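re the bet — no i am not wrong, look at it urself. input seq straight from the record:
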Amino acid sequence: MTLRVGIIGAARVATYAMIAPARAHPGVEVVAVAARDPDRARAYAAEHGIARVHDDYAALVADPAVDLIYVATPPKFHLEQARLAIAAGKALLVEKPFTMTAGEAALLLDEAAAAGVPVFEAMHSRHHAIWALIAGLLPRIGRIRHVTAVFDARVSTAEAEFRWQAGLGGGALMDLGVYPLAWVRAIAGEPLAVTAAQFRQERGADAAFSADLMLAGGVTAHVASDMAGPVKAQMVVTGSLGTLRIDNPLAPQRGHELVLTTSAGTESFSAPGSQGYPGSYDAQLAAVAATLLDGAAFPLAADDPLWSMRAIDAVRAAAIREPASPWAVIA
């Protein structure tokens, strides 16, 4: 049995997050695409060997030869496009961040549940086998006290780049910060409070942010992202008995290291691929396919996208933007 995928949005992210993993998976095939500009969709399909192009999103979700809709457009449009797919009874994989707000995420998940439609967020990094290794090492550092998680990346300043357009769901918090927030949540649970938050504004969007979190059991966390780079993806977990540093929890397939330091000394570890697939995007698609084709349990909770957006909303709510300063702080 083959899982047939239709892509909404002729997007760059789909080339490495869906098209390449589908080619590596014998049970998945990308069969159709649609974009706001039909000419662009046709050029995209020709470039990537996609058999069918639909003139609009409604036609794509209605295609009986499509089983899964992958939404690869800017976050501003996720809710509207996902609801089209739900109404058509199609399973959904929605790019991160899932929606613009937690309210939108709750609405989308409620409608999907009522319709019996499976919905997943494309939080690829959480599907890599590195997380099983992290889980196995954490007991060795004792009770967790603090987590620091950072993801910086240099984002193109091209005029058409939506990530500099806050109205489309761009900005450091939404585009980059969703990852370190997800890592902290995986390690220490859902944030109870945001005790401080800072945003640096550029070009009409938050170019950088940082936030301090309070979590259950007195655990604290610091998360940050910067769209000016240089590239850095790292998490450090400090416990009562030592520390665990994870270099590149974002895309471990591009190189990573876990460094455990305790009173016994320092050890270095690395993780294999997951489910026979070397990369986080491959493992994510394999998990979606296993759930839809074989009835396997999905590795992340069904409401994880909602909690992801709640964390983003909490950071946003804690920040006060002051025009007199490039940084705005509340504490």
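see?? Residues 143-240+309-330 form a domain with the Dihydrodipicolinate Reductase; domain 2 fold (CATH 3.30.360.10). told u. also DSSP finds nine helices and 15 strands in the chain. so pay up
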